Amino acid sequence: MILGHTTRKNFTQNPKNDILSGLTVALALVPEAVAFAFVAGVDPLVGLYGAFMMGIVTALFGGRPGMISGATGAMAVVMVHLIQKGNEVGLTLENPVDNLGTQWLFITLLFVGVIQALAGIFKLGKFVRLIPHPVMMGFVNGLAIVIFLAQLKLFPNAVPKEISFLDNTSEWFSHLFSNGSFWKMMLFISLTMGIMYGLPKLTKKVPAALIAIITVACITIFGGIEMGTVGSFIADGGGEGLQGSLPSFQDQVFGFFGTLSGHWGLILSTAFILAAVGLIESLMTLNLIDEMTETRGNGNRECIAQGGANILNGLFGGMGGCAMIGQSIINVDSGGRGRLSGAVAAIALLCFVLFGAPLIEQIPIAALVGVMFMVVVGTFAWSSFRIIRKIPLSDAIVLIAVSAITVWKDLAIAVIAGVIISALVFAWKNATMIRARKRIQPDGTKTYEIWGPLFFGSIQNFNSKFDVKNDPDKVEIDFVESRVSDHSALEAIFNLVNKYEAEGKSIKLKHLSEDCKILLRKGSPKFEDVIVEDVDDPRYHLAADPEKFTKPLSEYKLD
User: Which regions span the lipid bilayer (predicted)?
Assistant: First the structure.
């Protein structure tokens, strides 16, 4: 009964909100999917099919109810080289094949899906918990900037490119203020943003974004106002419109495996990059939605769902994708919390392709740009400006670096770089925390009381605390205020004991954990006499299971 209640709760808690928010997201998905298809160099319908299949699979089976997946720019830019190379190879074949790059993409997505599913099966999704907060803030800031810059490409040219602002300032401003198309678009973007800002203050029973899109669309359609629409955007990009059929099984891809001879390196490397980018963006978005909804998703389940969706894309002709932070925020802000919202978004998108193309193509781009601008405002962590001088310098550097790299390169590189920088800073700080308090016992024994973590980063400082040559004949090292964390630390203890014994001195080790004792005794029988047993010895564990180290420690390289 409890499981059934939880399942129903995850599917929908408020059907009205989920359905309306799903419709809102579907409208916002159209230009995004089409734009990313153009970026990758595939037909717009491939992008729309990809958004549908990613959306429906992850909505029903993913690890985060309310999160939206579809075709994304982060993955689209990775696909470009693969598709271009495939198209080049296709034209050089004995029987030339047009758009072979698209077929290579479908094959690659099969491998992407397998990699992502394996990541979920082996529970690698839990590692997203290791991402520090500054990296998370840099991620949302960088992504907000990327979303904002992507919308600027949808604007008409405010001033002809041949007119330089510096060389001919007056003419530049003259063209700017006389450009009716530009200011008309700005007016309707402002109207959209105004409705989305003001309507929630009056009522929250309907999604503000959906009302804003409908209002602006009605004004432009019934008022006969000419401006850029979804249809004109597709036509300008070389597409033929939204109208299409159901996705069909791409059985021909299995006949194109022979064309991959000599190019498997490109296919597999691209697959690994796409899988990594997709999982990082999806798991980061999952974390963000967790914070917004104060609930917790399942990262491993999401990995498996993402993998399954990408395999389906490869088999049925979609361009693949991952979680979309912008659309996920639109969904949550519009009241979408259950799986129903994502399912409605995906099904509505497919219905647009099958039945509603003429109507959807009339929606003004300005309305959708306005919605995305509000997403940018809501996504950007404005508090980062307030806290930037209050947080440690290293955290501030990480935050700025991740934001910049997200805009400059891509999300995956930015997050990995941020985690590496944070880990190095953490290791360095902990490496400097090792201390040794020295005192002489009444019997002449010199005691070293070690404070702080002993691990690979602090070994050099640890070794510098001891004066082997000048110490008395009896030495005792007490680890009661220290934690021996890894095998490098054990190797340092092992070597230190050898140095003292080489000088003919007696050394004792106190307050080591059981794991440390086991490994040291396996390293050499002499540690039976060196280690002092005590009832208050610590009970923590090392990073590895000592039972797996069956040989003496001296036979392992622990550098």
Answer: 45-62, 67-84, 104-122, 134-152, 181-199, 206-225, 264-289, 310-330, 342-360, 365-385, 397-428
